[in-house]
Amino acid sequence: MQSANVLLKKIVRSSVLPFAAQYGMKKNLFPLSRTLSLSLCLKQDNSCSPSEKLDLDAWKKVMKSGMQEEVGEVSEHQELSSLAAAREVLAMWRLAGKSVPENISEEQLQTFIECPSKSAKKKYLKYLYVKEIKKKSDKRKMEEKRERRLQAQQQASKTDETKSNSLICLWSKCMDKAYNWRAAQSMIFGQPLVFDMSYEKDMSAQEVANTVRQLVLSEGCNRKSVDPFHIHFCNFKDSSLYQKEFIKHYREAWDKLLITVTDQCYTDIFPKDKLVYLTADSPKVMKTFDHDKVYIVGSMVDRSIKTGVSLARAKRLGLETAALPLEKYLLWNIGAKNLTLDQMMCILLTLKDTGNWKKALEFVPKRKYCDFVNKPVHELKKTLNLINALKLGKRQEQVRKQFAKNYSKKLTQK
């Protein structure tokens, strides 16, 4: 019996247990196989190289990244669910007849969700609804306008308007030739008018663009005049902001303009005794237009330039200055007494042709003055001050004393 048991153990050890350790049999059938397999695995692990061992830090990183991805997926799922719920609410409100836009983006929907109260949500939806309606109406108006334009073009093609258009084009070409001929004559026989282009450093790029726009209008007014000026752009630098803006406006016609463009100063071209710098800061008032003088206008925008810049430049060069007699003919209302370059061009052209100040000063914007006056403005100001003093309730004795004082000053001056 003992020999049979010993024989059976040998058979199990030699055949069954190595098989169980190699192929991992169930532990309830062979309890000893687990210990044997573990011992074998431990032996195999001890025999492995250090590079094949498990890296615990890398394993921790992988596990953490997996957790973060799971959290991110959960948050994205929550956001998608909240957006879907918000869209369902909007669909219900739209069916209920409330002011809800038809198309709403995800950003707008997120803003709608973040609104603190229901009333705030309704106000935001109403704002989007009104905005959408306005956009649709603008689009509809643009389409209607496009359709009307197409219909007008079709009708014009069917009628004889093509002949009139050809006549208009022929007339415009002939007038351009006449204007160019006048400008060419003015370059030989016309009175010079100088634009000082040395104020680029005192202005920003936008202000230079506005100045060039006014100069383009001035050149157009001068070209269409009966007796145009010979325009000089003095102190004009190549590759300056002035030149870049002029090329934007004129393009290829910039090199064909019938004007004189030079980098020289006007004092090097004309004698100083004939130069008159027109500036609003001048203490001397211009009484009449002199056809023998060469008038200079500063090419700058008046809004941002400090007062006295052009006057200081004229004084440094030792030139005569003059200002337009605005106070003599106009009862000034509001605003500075500075005019744009195209307004100055129209005033000077009218003075050159007619010599009438009232007709010339009609080009001053009407918002800046009340009306033309017959009496001197200083007398009107005194009467206005007297009326205001009586309205304020000052005593008559003080008013009489002030009047007597002013009257005595006049007598002494005489």
TrEMBL record:
Molecular function GO labels: tRNA (adenine(9)-N1)-methyltransferase activity; tRNA (guanosine(9)-N1)-methyltransferase activity; tRNA binding
Record field: catalytic activity: adenosine(9) in tRNA + S-adenosyl-L-methionine = N(1)-methyladenosine(9) in tRNA + S-adenosyl-L-homocysteine + H(+); guanosine(9) in tRNA + S-adenosyl-L-methionine = N(1)-methylguanosine(9) in tRNA + S-adenosyl-L-homocysteine + H(+); an adenosine in mRNA + S-adenosyl-L-methionine = an N(1)-methyladenosine in mRNA + S-adenosyl-L-homocysteine + H(+)
Keywords in alphabetical order: Coiled coil, Methyltransferase, Mitochondrion, S-adenosyl-L-methionine, Transferase, Transit peptide, tRNA processing
Domain annotation SAM-dependent MTase TRM10-type: ranges: 179-371
Region Disordered: start-end pairs: 139-159
Coiled coil start-end: none
Subcellular location: Mitochondrion
Stored InterPro entries: MT_TRM10-typ, MT_TRM10-typ_sf, Trm10_C_MTase_dom, tRNA_m1G_MeTrfase_euk
Primary localization: mitochondrion
Chain intervals with Basic and acidic residues compositional bias: 140-150
A single GO BP: positive regulation of mitochondrial translation
GO cellular component terms listed in the entry, alphabetical order: mitochondrion; nucleoplasm
E.C. no: 2.1.1.218, 2.1.1.221
CDD domains named among the record's database cross-references: Trm10_MRRP1
Enzyme class name: transferase
Name under which the protein is recorded: tRNA methyltransferase 10 homolog C
Gene name of the encoded protein: Trmt10c
